[in-house]
Automatic annotation (TrEMBL):
Protein name in UniProt: Latex clearing protein
Taxonomic source organism: Chryseobacterium taklimakanense
Domain of life: Bacteria
Pfam families membership: MPAB_Lcp_cat
Residue ranges of domain ER-bound oxygenase mpaB/mpaB'/Rubber oxygenase catalytic in the record: 132-344
GO molecular function, one term: oxidoreductase activity
InterPro entries, sorted: Lcp-like (IPR037473), MPAB/Lcp_cat_dom (IPR018713)
Length: 401
């Protein structure tokens, strides 16, 4: 089965890449991708993490949950060897993850990590209101979420899980084998495989031609491009300055995280030009937002009103208006309309305030001074950990494969 750039000439694709945020990305990359290169990556739409799938088959689909969890936990906290007594499939997956590729540069990844930390709560705004919400406009990408019951589980838990993953993998020296971040990556990788196998078994009408394999490699690359390319684009919109080395570090960090998640390293973008090409070509097979997309977007907005981090309803309503104003500022107008995101009063006030605050902060800290840069990183990290702690304390504690 061969994927095709079905929507390359569609209005939503052309509008995004010729007039909207996509045009901004092309300018940043300095080169417009060639649709003729689609064939280079098309096969990824129907390829998946077989190592993860086989590991799930031999643990969570074969053994009692507690027993499977104990086995997985043992080898996420201890290194495994060829001679250890463990399911062969699990051994293969962990041996792949334990192999540190020759291209990995921990110092460069730490440069990316420090950038992620220094952006503070700006990062949380962009991840939520630009990367995550903007991703809902890709109708086919969202199908696994719909079929695995993401709407029923609620946006609060999904936000907590996403934040927990993002925060832990973007700290300095976080990606050591058996670290807390490594354990979260293992859990995420196995959760992807479990969801994929469940869909393949329980969803007979899954449309492989349109949607590809559930949680396929190309969808995953596009998703993690949202944590690097789109993430930095959003931060630029909020006035965050990014040095060439920081930009390189962010891409390198996510290349390694993606490698640990089982995506073939030869397809992972290393720079803005490669990332824009991947997003451009992949988005040519994605339809615009549909009814499922609107429901997912609505659930994300509704989370502001149901989350108990803020005690009073007026606080939650204010937070909702603030996020809506950021959606309206960051996303293209037609994406806001397709996702049915309401336009609040004084829509530009909050974004302007953030941009001004970032300008003053960067001027005050003088980021070219190493000591000031470190202080900026420490403050940003503190603020991000506070947001994560709030979500952990106010989210359901019912994780289960």
């Amino acid at each position: 089965m061969q994927a095709k750039p079905t929507f390359h000439n569609s209005q939503h694709f052309q509008k995004y890449w010729n007039e909207g945020n996509g045009k901004e990305l092309i300018v940043w990359a300095g080169k417009k991708p060639d649709i003729q290169n689609f064939k280079k990556y098309a096969h990824l739409y129907h390829e998946v993490d077989h190592l993860g799938d086989e590991a799930v088959k031999d643990t969570y689909l074969k053994l009692p949950y507690n027993e499977a969890t104990a086995i997985v936990q043992k080898w996420t906290t201890n290194q495994i060897s060829e001679t250890d007594d463990a399911p062969e499939s699990l051994k293969k997956m962990f041996l792949q993850m334990q192999h540190i590729p020759h291209w990995f540069d921990e110092d460069l990844a730490n440069t990316g990590a420090r950038f992620n930390m220094r952006t503070g709560t700006n990062a949380m705004i962009v991840l939520r209101d630009f990367s995550l919400m903007g991703g809902y406009d890709y109708a086919y990408l969202n199908k696994p979420l719909v079929f695995t019951g993401a709407l029923k589980k609620g946006a609060v838990k999904r936000l907590k899980d996403t934040l927990e993953f993002w925060v832990h993998v973007t700290r300095e020296n976080a990606l050591k084998i058996n670290s807390e971040a490594y354990q979260l990556i293992v859990r995420t990788r196995l959760m992807h495989s479990y969801a994929r196998l469940t869909i393949k078994k329980k969803v007979p009408d899954w449309d492989y031609e349109k949607w590809g394999e559930p949680i396929n490699w190309w969808d995953m690359i596009a998703t993690y491009t949202g944590f690097s390319l789109v993430f930095m684009q959003g931060l630029k919109k909020l006035g965050i300055k990014i040095s060439p080395e920081e930009e390189k570090g962010v891409f390198h960090l996510w290349k390694y995280v993606s490698y640990l998640l089982g995506i073939p390293e030869e397809y992972l973008p290393e720079n803005v030009e490669q990332a824009v090409e991947q997003l451009y070509l992949w988005s040519s097979l994605q339809d615009e937002a549909d009814e499922d997309s609107v429901q997912l977007a609505g659930a994300l907005l509704e989370e502001n009103l149901t989350n108990t981090i803020y005690k009073f309803q007026f606080q939650r309503k204010l937070l909702l208006r603030l996020h809506q104003s950021m959606n309206r500022f960051l996303l293209d107008p037609e994406i806001n309309e397709r996702l049915e995101i309401p336009k609040p009063r004084f829509v530009s006030a909050f974004p302007k305030l953030i941009i001004q605050a970032n300008g003053l902060a960067q001027k005050y800290f003088d980021l070219k001074n190493p000591e000031n840069y470190r202080k900026h990183v420490e403050l940003g990290n503190k603020n991000q950990m506070k947001v994560l702690d709030d979500y952990i304390r106010h989210s359901p504690k019912d994780f289960h494969y």
